[in-house]
Amino acid sequence: MTLAVNKVTLVRKQNKGKQAALSALEQQIAKLEKLKLQYSLLIDAEDKLLCNLQARVQHLAQLENVQIEGDDYQKELLIKEFFETKLNRLILEYLQRQGYSASAALFTDYNELEAFSDDHVYRESSLIVHSLTQMHNCELALAWCHTNKTKL
Questions:
Q1: Structural domain spans, the chain
Q2: Nearest C-alpha neighbor of 105 from the set 83, 85, 125, 120
Q3: What are residue 78's phi and psi, to 5 degrees?
Q4: What pTM was computed for the model?
């Protein structure tokens, strides 16, 4: 907000008139709307990641519940469910790493593994690898590095 006021003040000091001040304000409003959109997209992505993380923690908590509960049959069912989910996660990751994205998507839906799927990561990385190896173009890789520079 201060930036917008400073910009308008600067325009007025330069005696460029009301039209220039309005134009400067419109430019600042457009920038703020763009930032607002980017922020809302980041919040949505963060919420999705948080939900996935909670599902993964709940999955790990199943193993702890096995040790607490006393019924052997119940323990056996919980252990079976835990390891079945773990095996399905391993299969899903294998499919994703090998580039079988359509099969991985079907497997994810069939086994209800949406919270465990990092499909967006594998799709993005396969596009970058394809761009580098087949097209000999490093623009996508550099763009990814720029986007993720704080994490690198």
A1: 1-53, 69-117, 118-152
A2: 120
A3: -65, -40
A4: 0.62
